[in-house]
Write a structure and sequence with these properties.
With 218 residues, the chain is of the alpha/beta class. The protein is built from 9 helices and 8 strands. Strands 6-5-7-4-8 form a 5-stranded mixed beta sheet. A 3-stranded parallel beta sheet has the order 2-1-3.
């Protein structure tokens, strides 16, 4: 079975639901197998501190991506089964190994990832932004960013963006845990972080001392 084709078709179908489109009447050879199984397995990296896109907590809102996937699963009378992994860089290997049918939960398409798996058109546009915490000044240019101690999370698209911005490796801390930027900035472990603008804004609502700076990457 061609895993790249399998991923492309299943996620493309989800994207059509999320953008209000209609599903094609054509069916790939492996989608009936998923329907016959009755379960759609979704690989996800849980972020308990920022669960707006995919939450596994009982009784909490499911999150944007999970709502989209529930819509697709319901359309095909499937049970949605989240399959959590322990790190962002474990998602694609788990998919290739057949541990899930697709990846959900704020998984950004990058050039390096496109070489390994297929992506649908985006269902939620995002950009990466630099943010700092007062009294440290905001970062308005990439030249400034290269002089900061920059926090990021291993295995994410943020690592690629920081490298593309030519931040010296000695200035990068990729050991920040998911949802841990606020604490790392407050403790002085890092002086700046690169994160999705939607998450940075949500964190800023909780901590007004956070300040947004320049965008990084496309």
């Amino acid at each position: 079975m061609d895993m790249r084709r399998r991923v492309a078709v299943l996620i493309a179908a989800v994207a059509l639901v999320g953008t209000g489109g209609t599903l094609s009447s054509a069916r790939p050879a492996d989608l009936p197998e998923v329907i016959q199984r009755g379960t759609l397995r979704v690989l996800v990296m849980p972020d308990t501190r920022r669960p707006e896109f995919f939450s596994l907590a009982p009784g909490s809102p499911p999150g944007f991506d999970q709502e989209v996937l529930h819509g697709f699963a319901g359309l095909h009378h499937l049970t949605l089964k989240p399959v959590p992994v322990t790190s962002w860089d474990a998602l694609i290997p788990a998919l290739v190994e057949g541990k899930g049918d697709l990846i959900g939960g704020r998984f950004t398409a990058t050039d390096s990832r496109r070489k390994l798996v297929d992506f649908t058109t985006e269902v939620f546009p995002t950009r990466l932004v630099v943010f700092t915490r007062k009294p440290h000044p905001p970062v308005h240019t990439l030249e400034q960013l290269r002089k900061e101690k920059v926090g990021t999370i291993k295995g994410t698209n943020m690592v690629e963006a920081v490298a593309a911005a030519e931040v010296p490796a000695a200035n990068v801390d990729d050991g920040i845990p998911p949802g841990g930027f606020d604490e790392a900035l407050r403790a002085g472990r890092i002086t700046a972080a690169v994160w999705g603008v939607e998450s940075a804004i949500a964190s800023q609502r909780q901590d007004p001392e956070l300040q947004l700076g320049t965008f990084v990457g496309p």
